[in-house]
Amino acid sequence: MIETMIPDVGDVARWIDEARHLDRRAVLDLLALPRAALFAAADSLRRARMGDDVFLRGIVEFSNICTNDCLYCGIRRSAEPTRRYRMELDEILDVAGRMARWQQKTIVLQSGELASAAEDRRIGEIVRRIKETTDLAVTLSAGNRPRSVYAQWRDCGMDRYLLRFETSDPKLFRYLHPDCTLEERLRCLHDLRSLGVQVGSGFMIGVPGETLGILADNILLCRDLDLDMIGIGPFISHPGTPLASQANAYAEDTAMYFVAMAVLRLVNPDSHIPATTAFDAILPHEGRDLCLQRGANVFMPNNTPGRYRRDYQLYPNKPCVDEDGLQCSQCVAARIWALGRMIGDGPGHSHKTHDL
Ligand code: SAM
Ligand code: FES
Q1: Is 113 in the pocket of ligand 1 (CB under 6 A)?
Q2: 38 C-alpha vs ligand 1 centroid, how far in Å?
């Protein structure tokens, strides 16, 4: 019975229709499928819907200043003694200017969250200057902001926004985020969509308190939000946070991280799904490659200048902290080619159309 739920490439159209109607029980069944068959199905569906190209989104962690105190996060407001930094416009433009040589067509600008009109204007200016001086698509990831700020950034040229909902369980969300509610986070995602911005979201896998039911709901919420891109990665406990002693909910069965990735693809056939950095922290040099073989089609090389990387440690064992953008881009290309895949040409915009 369960076997019939594994989509095969020849039946893609039927599966896509079925995926739209899956409920929590059905997703729980997918999470329990034999793993080799599940991974193969996710890989087939990824190939059928997204192709073999791997799109690169180069990430620049441009500031670690944050006024939030998310319980899990290594750069939270109370995290000490992190050196706080903020990259200057020229430094960011310098990185952006090199990216074409690294075959990267999208820059992802990520930072902590700062409720400051001056910083909002500065970020808008950064986006505007990148659009004026390069052909890059620009993704921002700077937390919850009012709709008017998102509109201001879109008018400066922002193409996409990345804001994970982290968990679909409102109580667990509130516990993890003293400064924000799930409702507020979802309001931000809705505002971004209504502004015509491509929307990325996602969740951490295995935050303390997560059940399999919540994991299934997380996957379904990604589908119901009709996301253009979905980033998920294992929760990794950071020693400088209140969750220091809390293990990942799947610590005894770490293959569950990849099960989540594969089921995410089955339920979201047409979304871009990155192989996120946290998988490499769990399985060094290998985690992201396995993601690319289990549903993912995007890779996010780290372009943050080496001198800042140690100050953006969201979790321990974050890879590449001693490298620079050039080294990361060479390493990423080699990894993609070793899988028999190619680097995607073009910006890798969303495959979706949304009724606004
Ligand atoms: N301020 C923006 C925001 O909140 O969306 C972007 C920065 S935030 C540090 C980026 C992502 O890092 C979060 O969405 C979260 O999922 C992830 N993250 C933070 N701490 C983590 C941890 N301990 N383990 C795994 N992922 C973590
Ligand atoms: Fe602000 Fe993590 S708590 S970026």
Answers
A1: yes
A2: 27
Q: How many domains does the chain have?
A: 1
Report the pLDDT averaged over residues 281-293: 96
In this predicted structure, which of 4-8, 102-106, 133-137, 281-285 has the lowest mean pLDDT?
A: 4-8
| Ligand 2 site residues, Cβ closer than 6 angstroms | 66, 68, 70, 73, 75-76, 112-113
Q: Given a cut of 50, is residue 9 above it in pLDDT?
A: no
Do the domain assignments include residue 255? yes
Report yes or no on 356 lying in a domain.
no
pLDDT at 5: 60
Q: Is 20 inside a domain boundary?
A: yes
Cβ burial 42-68 (10 Å sphere, 16+ → b, else e): bbbbbebbbeebbbbbbbbbbbbbbeb
Cβ distance 141 to 113 under 8 Å? no
Domain CATH number, residue 239: 3.20.20.70
Percent of the residues in the chain that have a pLDDT greater than 70, as a whole number: 96
Residue 4 has pLDDT above 60, yes or no: no
Flag whether 160 is in a domain. Answer: yes
Query: In terms of residue numbers, what domain contains 252?
Result: 15-343
